[in-house]
TrEMBL record:
InterPro entries: FAD/NAD-bd_sf (IPR036188), FAD/NAD-binding_dom (IPR023753), Ferredoxin-NADP_redctase_2 (IPR050097). Its cofactor is FAD. SUPFAM superfamilies: FAD/NAD(P)-binding domain. Signal peptide: none annotated. It comes from the Bacteria. Homodimer. Gene3D superfamilies: FAD/NAD(P)-binding domain (3.50.50.60). This is Thioredoxin reductase. It comes from Paenibacillus brasilensis. Keywords: Flavoprotein, Oxidoreductase. The keyword Flavoprotein applies. Residues 3-277 form the FAD/NAD(P)-binding domain. It holds the Pfam family Pyr_redox_2.
Length: 301
């Protein structure tokens, strides 16, 4: 069977793209390896009517809605390669050796996070340590917080966090990521800056208690944010030759179309930031309308 479109990735972008294309009566294969990036998150926020939903519940409801449309096939499988073949079609190969062909391809594979290697981080991640103030800042409001970031954007993040808590310590983990002027500005707002390397996060039952530094210093904190480096979770865009932005995201025309005809990118894969459910879902919807319009123009002649 030749599909109108194959969507790689079953996050909010891919799911919303499948929903819109299913309702447009397009034959769609939604291929998903069921390894969502936000699986450790206790709840997702900032999505109207879905504020506080667990990632598992979000996916359950989304798949239930998408699979109401008979032209959408959900293929729970791992994609291993994608190639452009004759007549401009795309062939997708999964880990079991099954090949699927389509006229259009949507890359909605999202991002993966690379966190600083700090002992004790992962047992606390998603419980008292997070990476997005807009997603979890409200739950940590007015508490003693820590921000650990090695990236230049630490200054911007620190300014944001002050809106949720006035008791904030910024840790650069041994990196010179703040200028003297920025440090002075933060300190003038009551934000403590600590530049020594972080050795460990200390806590139990998911609750942060202390941050321990390599010099032996201990900082009492109850929660906070750790900034990861974000990279593409899959290399399909690179394999296909899609142009990339300086940030690392797949470059699009603003409506999902990449530099390779017939290839579209939606969600975190394309714009990188901000990484939120509602942005990704909206981008999936917008990209799907582009796919449908391009298919319509081709069929209309």
């Amino acid at each position: 069977m030749l599909y109108d479109c194959v969507i790689i990735g079953g996050g909010p972008a891919g799911l919303n793209a499948a929903l819109v294309l299913g309702r447009a009566r397009r034959n769609v294969a939604l291929m998903d390896n069921n390894r969502p990036r936000n699986a450790v998150t206790h709840a997702s926020h900032g999505f109207i009517t879905r504020d506080g939903v667990t990632p598992a519940e979000f996916r359950r409801v989304a798949y239930e809605e998408v699979q109401r449309y008979p032209s959408v096939d959900h293929l729970p499988t791992e994609v291993v390669s994608i190639a452009k073949i004759e007549s401009g079609r795309f062939e997708v190969l999964d880990s079991s050796g099954i090949r699927v062909q389509a006229r259009k391809l949507v890359l909605a594979t999202g991002l993966k996070e690379i966190f600083p290697e700090i002992e004790g981080f992962y047992p606390l991640y998603g419980k008292s340590l997070f990476n997005c103030p807009y997603c979890d800042g409200w739950e940590l409001r007015d508490q003693p917080l820590v921000l650990v970031s090695e990236l230049p954007a630490v200054y911007h993040t620190a300014k944001l966090l002050l809106n949720w808590s006035q008791d904030l310590v910024v840790c650069t983990n041994g990196q010179a990521s703040l200028s003297d002027e920025q440090k002075e500005r933060l300190q003038s707002k009551g934000i403590v800056v600590m530049e020594q390397p972080v050795a460990a996060f200390i806590g139990q039952h998911g609750q942060l208690e202390h941050v321990r530094f390599t010099d032996g210093t201990k900082l009492p904190r109850v929660g906070g944010f750790v900034t990861p480096q974000l990279v593409q979770s899959a290399s399909f865009g690179e394999q296909l030759g899609c142009e990339r932005m300086e940030s690392g995201g797949i470059k699009t025309d603003g409506a999902g179309r990449t530099s390779i005809p017939g290839v579209y990118a939606a969600g975190d894969s394309s714009y990188f930031m901000p990484s939120q459910l509602i942005f990704a879902a909206a981008d999936g919807s917008r990209t799907a309308t582009s796919v449908n319009m391009d298919l319509t123009d081709e069929d209309f002649g």
